[in-house]
Specification:
By secondary structure, this protein is of the alpha/beta class. Helix content is about 55%, strand content about 10%.
Length: about 140
Amino acid sequence: MGNILLDTGAFVALLDKSEKNHERCVTFFKDFKGRLLTTEPVLTETIYLLGPSIRAQRTCIEFILKDGAILVPQSSQSLSRAAELLEKYRDIPMDFTDATLVVLAEETGINEVFTLDKKGFNAYRIHGKRFFKLWPE
């Protein structure tokens, strides 16, 4: 397994011991040998969902700083593409954070995502064609 994208739900579950998918996500992460890539909106959403505790927020930031995942910044082009995807998938609906991950998949060629959002990522397509492989199974 090479590089994969990191989505919010899996990120929260990885860091929050009280989350029902925590053990499942930790087990996957321990066995994973590639690199995780994520976006700034995923980091922001994860911090928000972990709650107002400075300790939880710090844990999330330190995960990135200690190379737990590579934080990929948005460009004007990626923001424009994310807006197109939001319109395309408005019926699902797609949120902005998911749109940034689909754009990152298109930019990097990575079609695997560490997510708990099976409904969304089973519907989204890379360049409108390619399916995502979802982890953990």
